[in-house]
Amino acid sequence: HFSFFAGKPRWPERKTDLTYAFSPENQLSDSAKSVFSRAFERWSEVTPLTFTETASFSAADIRIGFFSGDHGDGEPFDGPLGTLAHAFSPPSGRFHLDGDENWVVDANLINSPSLVSAVDLESVAVHEIGHLLGLGHSSVEESIMYPTITAGQRKVELANDDVEGIHVLY
Ligand code: TQI
Ligand code: CA
Ligand code: ZN
Ligand code: ZN
């Protein structure tokens, strides 16, 4: 079953059009950016929310960046595997990914045997966006918000449990 953060934080009622930006230091490929765009779309399909990329990192509601090790927020990343990413509850908008992961952008490659400890970027993005919107973890194994993922797994479709949870907030 779905859960929320303490105090059930959410983006304010009047703020349904959220912007997001990528850290200018990362220089992401267009295909990496489109993975995030697809991940946002999965949540906008089931809520009144919209997500639009903006060029201004400092002004964006949701700020996405890849960092390695200690990156100044007291929650250092840990190299390959372990912690993959973290996102904070609303209205923080901070969305950080571990730059040391073997991120897989092309979903067709997730099961390629030559990839060592591959992590599917879209799967992690859909999960972290759930946190950014106010969802905690779920006890339902099929849900996007279930707190573990098997190595090499791809899970990008919202389960009923995810949709019911987000409908409580939006
Ligand atoms: N990162 C954890 C996560 O996003 C960070 C975290 C731990 C957390 N406890 C929390 C965030 C409580 C909010 C509330 O869950 S992670 C998965 C999953 C991680 C894990 O790197 O462990 C995904 C990131 F669910 F697959 F295990 C993305 Cl998809
Ligand atoms: Ca890691
Ligand atoms: Zn961080
Ligand atoms: Zn999580």
Write up this protein.
With 170 residues, the protein is an alpha/beta fold. The protein has one domain: Collagenase (Catalytic Domain), CATH 3.40.390.10. The chain has three helices and seven strands; from the N terminus they run βαββββββαα. It has a five-stranded mixed β-sheet with strand order 2-1-3-5-4, with helices on one face. It starts with 16 loop residues before the first strand and ends with a helix. The relative contact order is 0.22. The mean pLDDT is 95. The structure holds ligand TQI, calcium ion (CA) and zinc ion (2 copies). Residues 77-84, 98, 100-101 line the site of calcium ion.
Could you report the average pLDDT, rounded to the nearest whole number? 95
Hetero compounds = ligand TQI, calcium ion, zinc ion
Largest sheet: 5 strands, mixed
CATH superfamily: Collagenase (Catalytic Domain)
Identify low-pLDDT runs.
Answer: none
Number of domains: 1
Rounded to an integer in angstroms, the radius of gyration calculated over CA atoms is 15 Å
Structural class assignment? alpha/beta
- Shape-level CATH architecture: 3-Layer(aba) Sandwich
Percent of residues in helices comes to 10-25%
Number of helices: 3
String of helices and strands: EHEEEEEEHH
Beta fraction: 15-25%
N-C termini distance: 17 Å
Strand ordering within the main sheet = 2-1-3-5-4
CATH class: Alpha Beta
- The 3D shape can be described as globular
Q: What is the number of E strands? A: 7
CATH topology: Collagenase (Catalytic Domain)
